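USER:
Class, as today's exercise, take the chain set out below, and explain how the chain folds.
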Amino acid sequence: MDEVSSPLIEFCGVKKAFGPKVIFEDATLAVYPGETLTILGGSGTGKSVLIKMLIGLLRSDAGSIRAFGQEVTGLDDRGLLGIRTRIAMLFQSGALFDSLSVEQNIKYPLREHKWGTEAEMTDRVTEVLEMVGMPGSHKLKPAQLSGGMRKRVGLARSIAIKPEVILYDEPTTGLDPINVRRINGLILSLQAKLGVTSIVVTHDMDSCFTVSDRIAMLYDKRIAFTGTADETQTCEIPYVREFIRGGRGTLDEDVS
């Protein structure tokens, strides 16, 4: 990551509320090419809301969100489709279709984006399953997979279309320590092998400091702190220090 370069993604003065509940009053953040940036924050700070606004799953109320030099806010479905071919999201649950096999799940976005012939799609499925350490699992159904395996298939589906940016929404939630380490290793290896830019939302502090180039802290309805992993661990700002030491705040239940 080279911060002298222009940001790949920018949030500027973003506002978002759900009825009377204000999530963001002035969220401003830059994400640079090739970095892994992790978003931290207590319950109710809207960590997942931020990344969902980036790909149009939620709409901001005001402010600017730019990706690849293009304004995202206000894009119609066709415009958002173009953004979603370049930005993939790994949802917290994996979000697999239970009625489809692993192969069919991974081919789903390939077909949506008219990605090659059937043979090329099959080759791509094999390729990405090998990348996430699940070769030969093409015909399995989601019900036959463990939680960690579902996350890895979800990740394989996310990278199948060769995105430039990967969004990880709580990628290690509910996993045992072995699978947490496996997912963290995949985040690092995909960044290295594919040159992707990654944004990670997590509560897992060990994961945060393992995978992050920089960390952004949500507090008081805005991005209140950004810094490297080392800067975050040594930060003397009270709310950052408290969060890093294990406090997750006393805010309302997360809206994301």
Remarks:
- The beta strands are 9-18, 21-31, 36-41, 62-67, 70-71, 87-90, 165-169, 197-201, 214-219, 222-228.
- Confidence is low (pLDDT under 50) at residues 247-256.
- Residues 177-194 form the longest helix (18 residues).
